[in-house]
Amino acid sequence: MTDKELLNQRFKIIFQHLVEKGEVVKSSREKGMSSFAEKIMGNKSYGHIIRAYLKDSDARTITYQQAQRLVSHYSVNPTYMFEGKGTIFLSEEAAFSSNETSAGSPKSDDVLTKTNVPKHRTNIVFSSISAFASSTVDIGVHADSEHFYIPGMQGEHIAFYIKGESMIPTISDGDMVICRSLDSNERITENEIYAIVTSSGNVMVKRIQKIFNKHRQLQGIKCISDNYLEHDPFTLTINEVQKLLKVERKLTGIGL
């Protein structure tokens, strides 16, 4: 079963719990399928798509962005939603943390609540490629972009969808890559995958190798595609590289 199919299986479980908790009431105008679809998909007329997600026989599955909205609107535990671990709802997670505290009141960092999780546990900024390319500074400039959380990733990251097949079989068209800015003293690692923004505004994801001049000074990078049979390597000078981020993770099968 693919990651996307597993995500959809957890969505079905969460939806059933929401029905049992009275958060979704199919015959209700305020809490019915139209209201649910508007919160998750931004359009109350998409209730039929939600129903398709809930059918075992339908190939359609919930997207990563829709799952994030489900987490935000219904206090779903993001660790359960995206990894299948822990309790289903944050209120249950908070109660568990409180019970596990040995003495006195639990520390604020120990208890995950609806009010502090989205802000405290955000570590990914979702961006379009065009927005990513237009930023000449840090990830933090994307204040209006959608934010979400993936457990186990430290620090701020930026995510965007890949277009094209130059990195097959490692990264495919439609995959999402999650990248982080390089530290000021961090060295480029040979043959690792980076997101590159050029001075002309192009965005590409490639394996890179360093190119030095005769004085052993870095003068450029060689950009290599994993789909090397169809895409030849090429070089960029240092002046042509506007921004360089390390690709830390990819997510497959989560496109809209």
UniProtKB/TrEMBL annotation:
<keyword id="KW-0238">DNA-binding</keyword>
<dbReference type="GO" id="GO:0003677">
    <property type="term" value="F:DNA binding"/>
</dbReference>
<keyword id="KW-0805">Transcription regulation</keyword>
<feature type="domain" description="Peptidase S24/S26A/S26B/S26C">
    <location>
        <begin position="154"/>
        <end position="219"/>
    </location>
</feature>
<dbReference type="Pfam" id="PF00717">
    <property type="entry name" value="Peptidase_S24"/>
</dbReference>
<dbReference type="InterPro" id="IPR015927">
    <property type="entry name" value="Peptidase_S24_S26A/B/C"/>
</dbReference>
<dbReference type="InterPro" id="IPR036286">
    <property type="entry name" value="LexA/Signal_pep-like_sf"/>
</dbReference>
<keyword id="KW-0804">Transcription</keyword>
<protein>
    <submittedName>
        <fullName>Transcriptional regulator</fullName>
    </submittedName>
</protein>
<dbReference type="InterPro" id="IPR039418">
    <property type="entry name" value="LexA-like"/>
</dbReference>
